[in-house]
Design a protein that fits this description.
CATH architecture of the largest domain: 3-Layer(aba) Sandwich
Number of domains: 4
Radius of gyration: 23 Å
Structural class: alpha/beta
Order of helices and strands: HHHHHHHHEHEEHEHEHEHEEHHEHEEEHE
Distance between the termini: 57 Å
CATH topology of the largest domain: Rossmann fold
Low-confidence stretches: none
Number of strands: 13
Shape: globular
Strand content: 5-15%
Oligomer: single chain
Mean pLDDT: 95
Helix content: 40-55%
């Protein structure tokens, strides 16, 4: 409740309080937090319908208590209705007042009685109606409906509201793929091997891997298969000098160390000091011995030329709204403009780090054209010493766009996160 309350007040998602919980309680708390973010507009619509108090007049703690109670009733199959209501009522009495407890009881019990015939949003404003039904901000709905049409936009938003699936990638610096497969089979872990990239396995939950200590031992790491596309098309070779810019938390760095068989050098660069520690920890834990670290502002700092540069830029994150449901409530249309400007500056800086004959990969976890192909078109109009390279030898045809010279994945089409990327060759 406190995590949700703080988010309402500051727009910051701080999950640190969950670290004090045991594994099972932490898992359940995460389910509530991210589930409520995925359904927030709809939950608020129901609160407004069943409460005599206006939503904006409620204290953040009380508002989030009702969100949790309603989420319990509608989406948590393992919780009996009476238990969900009683728990919410007791929390309200203890944390706020006896009167608030009575009000909580009245709202939730009224909703329970009508649960088979709950009201549906019926706003005249079409964007507001869609935004409330699918729990996405109105500015995002307006853009996506205009870009894709309503049917496609609905499918995308529905995909964003599903519990996400996860991929684990075997770390071949610590174990062989066949040994990792034996580990999963021995422990009755259900998995589905990816057809797109070697070493990636789709799993229902990462909890078994965590409980076995395999992440701590560096045996495997969590990485969506589409997030592996950018290092794959960079195609770093053993013995090369490679830069990973905006590198934190370092999972793409780890994949490149795997691809390079721990031969050569990778310079992982990030501007945030606290995030550098994460990269360092991961490099040591996963045996990525060729990784060096540098805290720097890529736009301001000067670097020597490298054989290959990976630039996974900061972005709006609209391709990962299932895993990062909070982002939809943090991002604004103004943020999009700001981030596009920053991306252009980073791309300009990265281009000046590539040797003649070298390559530069630009990637995002965004679905927005301004951050993706439009950004690249502007870059190529200015830089005549770079050209787009074909990705047909690296990635499956179903994710390729722009005549095979870019990739774009979609949550509702490909059952993975939404990622974009291109490979740019420096030709002179």
């Amino acid at each position: 409740m406190r995590v949700l309350e703080r988010f309402d007040k500051t727009q910051e998602l701080d999950l640190e309080p969950l670290s004090k919980l045991d594994h099972q309680d932490r898992q359940q708390a995460n389910e509530y937090i991210h589930g409520i973010f995925r359904r927030r507009s709809y939950l608020d619509f129901l609160i407004s319908h069943f409460s005599s108090i206006q939503l904006e007049e409620m204290e953040p703690f009380f508002r989030n208590l009702l969100r949790v109670g309603i989420y319990d009733l509608l989406f948590m199959d393992g919780t009996p209705d009476y238990a969900a209501i009683n728990e919410a009522v007791e929390i309200a009495k203890k944390q706020i007042s006896s009167k608030t407890g009575d009000l909580t009881n009245a709202i939730l019990r009224r909703m329970q009685r009508e649960i088979e015939s709950l009201p549906k949003p019926d706003f005249e404003d079409r964007n507001k109606l869609i935004a409330t039904t699918f729990s996405h901000p109105e500015w995002m709905v307006e853009r996506w409906v205009k870009q894709f049409g309503e049917r496609e936009a609905f499918m995308l938003m529905q995909a964003n509201n599903q519990r996400p699936s996860y991929y684990v990638r075997v770390n071949n610096l610590k174990t062989k793929t066949e040994n990792f497969l034996l580990r999963m089979e021995k422990n009755d872990i259900e998995f589905e091997e990816s057809d797109w990239l070697p070493g990636y396995y789709k799993v229902n939950s990462i909890n078994p891997f965590r409980s076995k200590g395999w992440f701590d031992k560096g045996v495997c790491f969590v990485q969506d298969v589409a997030a592996g596309f950018a290092p794959t098309i960079l195609d770093p070779q053993p013995g090369e000098s490679v830069y990973d810019l905006c590198a934190a938390p370092g999972t793409k760095t780890l994949l490149m160390a795997n691809l390079m068989e721990n031969q050569g050098t990778i310079l992982a660069v990030d501007i945030a000091a606290d995030r550098m520690h994460k990269i360092a920890d991961n490099a040591e834990k996963f045996g990525a011995e060729i990784v060096n670290l540098q805290r720097a502002d890529v736009i301001e700092e000067r670097f020597k030329l490298a054989d290959a540069v990976l630039l996974d830029v900061p972005c709006t994150g609209t391709g990962v709204l299932s895993k990062r449901a909070d982002l939809r409530w943090r991002r604004t249309l103004a943020d999009l403009k700001t981030v596009v400007e920053t991306q252009a500056q980073l791309l300009d800086a990265a281009a000046n780090m590539v040797k003649r004959g070298g390559r530069l990969v630009y990637s995002t976890c965004s679905l927005e054209p301004e951050e993706n192909m439009q950004q690249i078109e502007k870059f190529l109009a200015e830089y005549d010493n770079f050209e787009l390279d074909s990705l047909e030898d690296y990635l499956p045809e179903e994710v390729l766009i722009e005549d095979g010279k870019a990739y774009q994945t979609w949550p509702h089409k490909h059952n993975c996160d939404g990622h974009f990327g291109v490979r740019l060759l420096r030709v002179k």
